[in-house]
Amino acid sequence: MPIDFTAIAEAFKAAVPFIPVTLRLAFIPLFIGMIFGLLIALARFFQVPVLSKFLAGLITIGKGVPVVLSLMVAYLLFSDLFDQVATSLSLPIRFSDINREYIGIFVLSFTATISLSEIFRGALSAIPKDQWDAAASIGLTQFQTIARVIFPQMIPIALPMICSQLIVLIKASSLVSLVSVVDVLNGALITATTSYTFLESYIAAAIIYWALSITVEQVSQLFERNYTRKFVKGSAL
Predict the structure, then answer these.
(1) Residue 179: which residues within 8 A CB-CB, separation 6 or more?
(2) Please, what is the end-to-end C-alpha distance for the chain in angstroms?
(3) pTM of the predicted model as reported, rounded to 2 decimal places
(4) pLDDT band at residue 232 under the 50/70/90 scheme
(5) Where are its TM segments located (predicted)?
(6) Which residues make Cβ contacts (< 8 Å) with residue 163, sequence separation at least 6?
(7) What is the Cα–Cα distance from 145 to 129, expressed in whole angstroms?
(8) Could you give the CA distance from residue 78 to residue 98 in angstroms, rounded to a whole number?
């Protein structure tokens, strides 16, 4: 059947205002995931007693849980428990007053933490052991070694995978419609509910997702080239 390009343009215009929602659902979980993912990676890398094994098991379980399932479980738990907790604490707020976007951010942050912890653990393992020995030989503490020696070398190793994770989060944000959040995909489908041009709406949403993903990839490559150049130059000095 012929494609209605006018319908694509209309769906595109309807979806553009929701780009900030999609970006929040990608960048906030990425930031949260980087913090907790790094802490988990350090705990596992240094084999902290009990905690490292517990986190390893948690990561293994988390890897096998689909984002869709996590969203539905989180939504049902919040909807069932939030009002009970609020009532017991005499709080005036109710679940119906909560922005559903927070549920999406919570679930995507959990997903990002799992992936990023493995990324950082791999980056830590890629640093030669003699780097640690050299830092210890000049009197650096373990924290100073991580901050001044290891972390700067981890960035160029982990950056391409962090970029890929951000693109994954941008695409995964389209699932938040399950918890009544309107993002780029659902914004594009607004026009389809009256004109029944669903194919055109999906094409419009795909164009936006492609544009966002390409932008992220290009910015990441630019940063990676500049950082690597500065790092090599600083090492030479």
Answers:
(1) 71, 74, 75, 100, 103, 104
(2) 64
(3) 0.87
(4) low
(5) 21-42, 54-78, 102-120, 157-182
(6) 216, 217, 220
(7) 12
(8) 10
